[in-house]
Amino acid sequence: MKSFDALIVGGGIIGGAIAWELTRRKLRVAIFDRQEPWREASWAAAGMISPSPEPSEEPALFPLAKASFDLYPAWVSEIENVARAAPLVRNEATLELFIGAEAEAERDAFVAEHQRLGLKTKAISLAEAKKLEPTIGSNAGAAAWLADEATIDPRALGLALFQALEMRGVAVHSGTEVNSLMIDDRRCTGAIAAGRRVSAAHVVVAAGCYSGSIEAVRAYAPVRPVRGQMAALRPRGVAPSRVLRSQRGYVVPRADRRIVAGSTLENDGYEKRITPAGQMKILGAAVELSPALANAEIVETWSGLRPDTPDHLPIIGPVSGSVDGPAGVTIATGHYRNGILLAPITAQLVAQFIAGEALSLEITAFSPLRFAEVARLGAERR
């Protein structure tokens, strides 16, 4: 029976980042993925590294997002150095555009909230916005400049990260689904992967929207898939040079001059598919943000399944604090629309749990125990 210090279920941005952090502590790490690593939500993402809160987001998320944003430069730099990759991050501010009769009032409230949180967001005139990005549409009624922003190509990041993990000796098992955990006297001793027993001192479940398929952690990881459709455009002539966003959609320039446009939020189970309605929404928002894209070539369409939770907050932490939770199991899932952004801080926190170190951030709001207690009370009432 193979043996590791840590076994990670899931080879997306969260699982890969955790493996990376654990190798920095000289642990022997294995990743098991039900298909090819990096082919789920991470591969499908737009790659905006933005701590800026959206109006619908829970306030508890911002400290986690800001901490991860601050970790990003050093985190990516180390991966680039080990993998000998070209620079992965584009440090460019974002233009947020507001459309409609209440555009200025919405912009002012948006900026005030960002500044209250210590972000460098500021209101700018439409004339200033057009100087910064001449392709913006005439429908914009107000604009804000978000300085605390960056972007990364998730596919390039995945290639570099898994090359670096291989160089660090991480065992990556593709097409190997973890079916169950091995529990002995309320302690997890490993997992059963594709029918084989694999011993591990610690198991981390970071399988995105598939995390709840493992019975031993189902009560702690009530994640569900939320589909997001995307499109990639190749402009003819002028094109946006920076990220443009509104409440209707966004466009993200890539280094190869493609423009990634997104996205939808669809509750349609585990079906990754493209729909006419979804693409109409995405492309309509893209052209509204930048009319220069009206004649662009559509070079790719795809969709991914984000892992959402009942309270839309990630699940990070051990399960051993509950009545039935086995020791040696940590959950890291439910990052919803923020997986790329939250990878560095999630990895740091999980590594601190496993190593018995002091946590760098208070994360009670993200504990998996919050769901286990709800499930237990519901069972008792029945």
Key structural traits:
382 residues, FAD/NAD(P)-binding domain, eight-stranded mixed beta sheet, 9 helices, 19 strands, 28% strand
Name of the CATH superfamily of the largest domain: FAD/NAD(P)-binding domain
Number of domains: 3
Structural class: alpha+beta
Query: In angstroms, what is the radius of gyration?
Result: 21 Å
Major β-sheet annotation: 8 strands, mixed
Share of residues in strands:
25-35%
CATH topology of the largest domain: FAD/NAD(P)-binding domain
Number of helices: 9
Helical amount: 25-40%
Termini separation (Å)? 41 Å
Total number of strands: 19
Stretches where pLDDT is under 50 for at least 5 consecutive residues are: none
CATH class of the largest domain reads Alpha Beta
Quaternary organization: single chain
The whole-number mean of residue pLDDT values reads 95
Order of helices and strands: EHEHEHEEHEHEEHEEEEEEEEHEEEHH
CATH-scheme architecture of the largest domain = 3-Layer(bba) Sandwich
Which of globular, elongated, flat, extended, rod-shaped describes the shape? globular
Brief overview, please?
The protein is built from nine helices and 19 strands.
Q: What report would you give on this structure?
A:
By secondary structure, this protein is an alpha+beta fold. It has three domains: 2-82 and 154-223 and 310-381, FAD/NAD(P)-binding domain; 93-148, no CATH class; 225-307, D-Amino Acid Oxidase, subunit A, domain 2 (D-Amino Acid Oxidase, Chain A, domain 2), CATH 3.30.9.10. Helices cover 31% and strands 28% of the residues. Strands 1, 2, 9, 10, 11, 12, 18 and 19 form an eight-stranded mixed beta sheet that branches. Helix 1 (13-23) packs parallel to helix 8 and helix 3 (61-83) packs across helix 6. The chain starts with a strand and ends with a helix. 50% of the residues are buried.
